[in-house]
Design a protein that fits this description.
Length: 363
Amino acid sequence: MKLPPLKIGKHTIEYPIIQGGMGVGISWDSLAGSVSKEGGLGVISTVGTGYYEKGKYIDKEIAGRPLETENFYSTKALFKIFENARKICKDKPLGANILYAINDYPRVVRDACEAGADIIITGAGLPTNMPEFTEGFEDVALVPIVSSAKALKIICKRWEKRYGRIPDAVIVEGPLSGGHQGFTYEQCFMEEYSLENIVPQVIEEAEKWGEIPVIAAGGIWDHEDIVKFLKLGAAGVQIGTRFIGTYECDADDNFKEVLLRAKKEDIVLLKSPVGYPARGVRTNLIELVEKKEAPPIKCISNCVAPCQRGIEAKAVGYCIADRLSDAYMGDKELGLFFSGANGYRLNEIISVKELMRRLVEGE
């Protein structure tokens, strides 16, 4: 099947493939710029930009970690990441992923607009006031991530009433995705919440509001998966974990090695300070957490609101900002390595160009 282009707002993406935003530092300038260059939508994660280029763009740090929210979500670093990504992809559409649960969400959205994002994607909560923060950037397309038709309905009702607009597209993420889930632990294993079941429901709701492209995400791996969801009525797909297996992925080689070595049973659902279950690889850190021997929690970066300045981190046994950044930097002992349910299928490192070719043409 020849894959059609994907139109989101005023932006046309050559292939209906969005690269999932992966933080801390897994999808920054090198990966996102390369995906956009090859005809997909590269997406820069705005999480933990203070770690970019070893903290070169932050003003304050403690023990090598960005101090407070303004440094963890560094404006200067985000601008530099976009600048370097643009050198790779030129004027092709480029996205930013901004979690709704973060501290300083309004400021980071403005930063992304000013840095040159064409499309902003937001999950980890219902972004009912997202359009407020993009005023003056009418060409920037807004794309919420939902896990149900009900969530899309709430967003559309609020946006239409308050701002006179609806989302330019919506991503529906099923329970096989990497990182945080929009489901309870039990729901992640129930058939009724599978991506195949929730995509048609979200499409039905989207059609009530006009032409909102629906993008399927969570566990999508190859050309056959893409075709399956396009035939279900999706306008495109989002793929995250498989892009970790590329030379251009911004993660340390040790991060890639953890995934290359992971077996199916190693990829598990974890408790997270954010309040949602999170899927990642069972590593030394998880064993330390279970034995209550993980590193002490100091909340240096104050990254996400639900954590309540380390209260939730202490409840689950680890600081998510510190441990994700350790993974980005390749610390196999203390890093938290997020992965989608199919991450164990990663068995080689290839170029983004080759991966896009396989996704588009089949293998």
